[in-house]
Write a structure and sequence with these properties.
This protein has 14 helices and 14 strands. Helices cover 40% and strands 14% of the residues. By secondary structure, it is of the alpha/beta class. A 7-stranded mixed beta sheet has the order 1-9-8-5-4-2-3, sandwiched between helices. Strands 10-12-14-13 form a 4-stranded antiparallel beta sheet. It has a 3-stranded antiparallel beta sheet with strand order 7-6-11, with no helix packed on it. It has 2 domains: 224 residues, Type I PLP-dependent aspartate aminotransferase-like (Major domain) (Aspartate Aminotransferase, domain 2, 3-Layer(aba) Sandwich); 125 residues, Aspartate Aminotransferase, domain 1 (Alpha-Beta Complex), CATH 3.90.1150. The radius of gyration is 21 Å and the shape is globular.
Length: 375
Amino acid sequence: MINIHVAGTDLTEKEEVYVLEALRSTWISSTGVFVDKFENDFAKLCGTKSALSVCNGTIALHLSLLGLDVRPGDEVIIPSLTYVATANAVRYVGAEPVFVDVDPETWCIDPKLIENSITRKTKGIIPVHLYGHPADMDAINQIAAVHGLWVVEDAAEAHLARYKGCPVGSLSKIATFSFYGNKILTCGEGGAVVFNDPQLKIRLKALRGQGVDPMRRYYFPITGYNFRLTNVACAILCAQIERHKEIIERRKKIFQNYDDKLRGIPGIGFQPVAPWAEPAPWLYCITVDEKIYGQSRDALMKKLAQDGIETRPFFIPLHHLPPFRDESRRRGENLPITDALSLSGLNLPTFSQLTNDQIVKITEIIRCFSKKYAF
């Protein structure tokens, strides 16, 4: 029986008050004061001119690609070490995801390898700020500029992370976020697209709302989608934004607590942090070197589960998954860093209510389970 889950939501009376306000107003669909407030507040938080709320993070990616007019036959470069939504969204518009290995110093897409994957079909790059760590956006943007490509940040896991002092979300043409229940800021299900281009805002807003002409009711000049988020969900997000500093600080303390208690265990590795990065404290990551630790990653996960502690492995590389592997093999993709991290990495419980006693329990099991340490 699991007693300590890998993630949990941080909700207080403020969220309850805002939700009740939305309910009592009777504005519970996709219009209302909290929709506008959230979009304005989140854009400011990201350092952009505009934000649009959408149903979830996958739809945020899908809407972005539609807005950029990505079409069948196009190629989009992405890392293979990411959640499947990044590649799925590319397929939704008929394009093909092309996979690039990650940098061992950031675990994000390696800029040094991107140019080798650019073809005449390439239209853009989607760097993922993996497990809260920003990708090297200056290097990626420079490559994109040279080749006439757009860049979309997938910041689903990196709320409030910073790259060279700038917030993620402000570092490319478009950025996307997820507010799923395990994210730092959450409303259960939800997402956002942020950007600076006013013309892009008109296009994305129309696509999000069934393709409606904003100047003529019930007139639809383009085929659109219903990708909107509710006023109730935005009410929760407004409260989360107001509380973002306390949420981040608590999670940072949890990260530091893990660092202190896991340091020195042979074979346990930590997520690297580039000197220019201020990662978001999303899920605490470790790697397990079986030869040094004396146990495999999967054996450690099984041991923790037996003691009521939920963990999760790193993502299975997308280039190995059935929907994508044949095309990846045809292109001859070889991604050794991605493969190694996927086999050795796991996420430990990370949520605001995690107690010091629980962290002690988790880390002591990890320490004592090591055949090389427990002698």
